[in-house]
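your task:
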Amino acid sequence: AAQALLDLAAELQGAAAAAAADGAGAVARTLLLREAAYRALGECLCQPDLAERLDFGAWWSGELRGLLEAGAAPGGVGGNGNGNSNGDPDYSEAAASLRFARRALVARAAWLAGVGALRLPTPSLWAEALSALVALLRADDLVVALSAAASLSAAMGDAIDEAEAAAAGGGGGSNGGRVPFSFLGGGADNASGSGNGSEQDPDADADARAAAVASLAGPALAGLVSLLPRVEDDESAVRLLGAASALFELAGRAAAPHLSALAGALPAVWARASALAGVSSSSDSSSVAPSSSATSGGNNGAAARLHSALMAVLTHALRRLGRAATREPAV
């Protein structure tokens, strides 16, 4: 079954070019089939049968990285139409379907970068994936940007778990008990040097990942904060704050110079949570999008989750940054 899934994904990778002669609608259909196959691959990444056949590092370098870069480019994927050389927008149904399919594929690639980050063979590739996700936070398409934020949070959360396991003596480096990846079709004989995680000291891997997050702290926090006014649902706001918490946990004191970027947005988020609970607040919430449940007479469950996420961010900032966090007026 694993080989059949891989064969299908490989076939669909080249199907879009062949379908181009049949028009934008045909290309869109092949891209959506490819996105579905990629989701199936991502859901099965931890299955041994698939793990023996798939080199996630090669997949990242050969395709997924390019998809994320295309999504983060000015204008994003899909552009202003169907790719006509004159650049004139195409508002036909087929062109709209093609733009949607391209965005869906980029969002799926972002998801894969999150679920498969620790299967990249070296910490430097992990850092490369994280950098691509941070760039995608500025994507024009909100679904693509939120997919990047969720994957950023997942990748950092997994890295935190790996670091804690290593500190507790669990060892295992970036394998973390998962089945190593090897070259596609190469079996165990080709596993050395390109498997799921390096054979380095797990402490060194953890330090390298923390350094990568520290170097990205500024643009990552700025990207997360820029998304807060764009989201209307409260769960998305909770996830964005969760990503910020993970960032502070990994980056530590290196995130201190960038705390103000997030701290300035916290009062408005607090006001939003208070509005959900039906509690009046004097804070200005104009910089945060109105909640989709704020007009329904209060939503204590959503308010509790949002308040909890806010307190988690503050807790991580205070615990990891110490006095540097208390010097920020908004905190």
In short: Residues 125 and 173 are 15 Å apart (CA to CA).
